[in-house]
Fold this protein.
Amino acid sequence: MSDWDTVTILRKKPPKASALKTEQAVNAARRQGLPVDTQQKYGAGTNKQHGTTKNTAKLDRETEELRHEKIPLDLGKLIMQGRQAKGMSQKDLATKICEKPQIVNDYEAGRGIPNNLVLGKIERAIGIKLRGKERGQPLQPPGGKK
């Protein structure tokens, strides 16, 4: 036999740890009768830093429903009437107050969450008071009270 026919392997790299953990490698080790130790790490693959808190029972006993305050329906009707009196569409009003048309739609339907900045802009655009005791009255220009 000549040197050309012989192959000398100097060193074969052992399989990496990640390759030994695959399901295929574990099943092969089981078939060969080797001892296989599998462990499930606690909280593996999750972003949990801590276990359950002490307040879980307190939260379970909580019965109050927490919801955002909504725009009253009569206020939505005032906005709609004022907008229509000025001959504006919802989109025109939204453009005038620099808000999305969906916000005007939500306010008119009584679904919007009250925001004094938005209500103030709508008041000035349609010229009707929407907040306070004089709700529905024409808006006085600044310094117009005597």
Summary: The domain at 71-136 is CATH 1.10.260.40 (434 Repressor (Amino-terminal Domain)). The chain is about 40% helix and 0% strand. The chain has a mean pLDDT of 82.
